[in-house]
Write a structure and sequence with these properties.
By secondary structure, the chain is mainly alpha-helical. It has four helices and no strands. α1 runs antiparallel to α2 and α2 runs antiparallel to α3. The protein is rod-shaped, with a radius of gyration of 21 Å.
Length: about 110
Amino acid sequence: MPAGPAGGNGLAVAAMVLGITGLVTSVLFVGGPLGVLGLVLGLVALMRAGRTGAGRGQAVTAVVTSSLAIMVSVLAALFMVWFANKTQDCYRPDSFRQYKQCVHQQLREG
């Protein structure tokens, strides 16, 4: 059985770590920038893997997870904007209970 290509692709490993970390933290909006960085590094690593063959799987994983991290971050941001717009009348309650009731009422109306 032939051995794999000699050497590794450190760029692919770094991109994969950024992509996975970005995906895990994407709902906290940190994942978006990490995903962009992981995507760029992943694409560069994928081109490098095309020449050397080293780290192709890791580069593909980086591109996929980074893309997902970006999409989830955008969806989370859109949801937060929608939620803030929908419940903007509830931002001056006297108590948390009053805030909670107002939010439930606003979400039921629309």
